[in-house]
Amino acid sequence: MSMPFYVSPEQLMQDKAEYARKGIARGKSIVTLEFEGGILLIAENPSTSLSKIGEIYDRVAFAGVGKFSEFDQLRKVGVRYADTRGYAYSRDDVRAKALANAYSQVIGEVFTREMKPLEVEIVVAEVGDPRFVGHEKNAIYRVRYDGSINDEQGFCVIGGTADQLESHLQSSYHEGMSLAEAVRAGRDVLGRAENGDPNLATGNLEVCLLERDREGRRFRRLGQGEVASLLG
Amino acid sequence: MFFRNGYAGYRSGYQGSSFMELLRAEAQQMAPDFSALAQGLKLEGIPHGTTVCCFKFADGVVMAGDRLATAGMQVASREVQKVFPTDSHSMIAIAGAAGPAIEMARILSVELEHYEKIEGERLELDGKANKLSQMIRQNLPAAMQGLAVVPLFAGYDLRRRIGRLWKYDITGGRYEEGNAETSGSGGLYAQEHIKKTWHEGLSGQEALDVAVGAIVAAADEDRATGGVDLDRGIFPIVDVCTEAGIARATNDEVRASYERVRS
Fold first, then answer.
1. Domain membership flag for residue B10
2. How far is the C-alpha of A22 from the C-alpha of A3, rounded, in Å?
3. pLDDT at site A5
4. How many whole angstroms separate alpha carbon A123 and alpha carbon A101?
5. Could you report the per-residue pLDDT of B138-169, keeping only the tens digit for each?
6. B2/A80 CB distance under 8 A
7. B51 annotated active-site
8. What pLDDT shows up at residue B5?
9. Any bridge partners for residue B51, and if so which?
10. Average pLDDT, whole number, for chain B?
11. Is residue B27 very low, low, confident or very high in pLDDT (cuts 50, 70, 90)?
12. Residue A3 domain-assigned (yes or no)
């Protein structure tokens, strides 16, 4: 009779984490940062059809790194959740906090229960609405492959060398940046990634905004021309 | 409900891109079903919308509606909205039982937004018009009991670069109209006015005048249609859809147009 190998829970979790981290590190990073007009999400993405950044609802956006099929599925679940909630209650009842928590739950569940963890790291960003009491502030949540969730202030980087890139961003970021400054800072940081390209062409950038001062759906994807003119 | 536990959980359930189907599959209790409601209902008690019209002009298409909702012989609301943008380049005008009609307009706009977000691209204008057909067809049992929804649908076709409009019957039959269409109890009078004043290549201001004139003409003949109410400052809604998107005429613009039409 064969004896099953004993693997300690610590070892098991470490192995899973290692596996997920490796998967995530293979992909390119995404930078999320607040600017004077809202929130900017910027990613290195040579593909124009497979997006890493997406619209969830009026004031909420999603960004994911790692395995495309996995984070895109999470994005779609988020859209279904948000649209159903907004239809059942009101459009102002769709908030990033609840969604980020739900993501944290499901990603954490997969991490502990399944053989293979999700190789993803995601950001859920919500732009504030100055005309709506209690909803004025921006919010940026980061959820990791093990379901751990963080509330980020000002900016956040997800992907392989996120910690290193965040320290770069720390030095260039300041409150109330203009859109052009923010896009430049974002591109700069992406170019410093270990697997990044220091001379990132605008065609390889995916740039999306949550614009505070618009009505209704605040999410907007910038075209190549607009990105180029912002980078000057 | 969408965040079931575990890997198998978050990948299970409805996977398509239609919001209506999503509701039916995942949240049946939230999917509107007016046929069950319609049984034994006294229709005189339900607010009804009356006159809406839609026609093409040089830059796209115009949609207008009065503001009155009636329940039998009573005024149900003086400021009801019957013209709704369903996304940035399409809109719906409703006549008939206000409750189901407004809900249908709302759910169509969620449907279009949902599709766009899930698929990463928009439905074509024909696709949107067809989707509305299906929704009206699903409402047929309720329509048979008197809760009919017969909207007009219009938009700017960004591929063909023209304004287009459709009318529907209660079975979901969809008919693309050439230049103009009206609906509701005062629709006939609005139609008559449009026939007399409409011509090819109307300018923006001329189009506004035709729209306001049509609603005013309908209000003049049909007691259930509200016209311009200067005492209360209530004006018909006129939405203009062009390549740039949808713009709603302000009250001042409609008032100025009303003065031109009357003189």
1. no
2. 30
3. 80
4. 12
5. 888 888 887 888 899 999 999 999 999 999 99
6. yes
7. no
8. 53
9. none
10. 90
11. confident
12. no
Measure the CA angle with vertex B75, ends B72 and B81; round to 5°: 110
Residue B225: which domain range? 19-24+48-262
For the domain that residue A212 is a member of, what is the CATH number? 3.60.20.10
How many contacts, defined by CB atoms under 8 Å, are there between A and B?
A: 74
| A114 belongs to a structural domain | yes
Cβ contacts of A80 on chain B, cutoff 8 Å: 2, 14, 22, 26, 114, 118
Whether residue A24 lies inside any domain: the answer is no
Q: What is the DSSP string of A62-85?
A: EEEEE-HHHHHHHHHHHHHHHHHH
* A87·B23 Cβ contact <8 A: yes
Could you give the number of structural domains in chain B? 1
A70: containing domain? 47-231
Its pTM stands at 0.92
pLDDT at site A217: 95
Contacts A55 to B, Cβ<8 Å: 117
Gap from B106 CA to chain A (nearest CA, Å)? 9
pLDDT at B38: 67
Asked whether residue B33 is domain-assigned, the answer is no
The answer, yes or no, to whether residue B54 has pLDDT greater than 70, is: yes
* B70 token code pair: 């009636």
What tokens does B242 get? 């062009």
A34 lies in some domain: no
Residue of A67, A79, A81 for testing the chain B interface, max B β-carbons within 10 Å: A79
Residue of A67, A84, A124 to mutate, interface with B, max B Cβ within 10 Å: A84
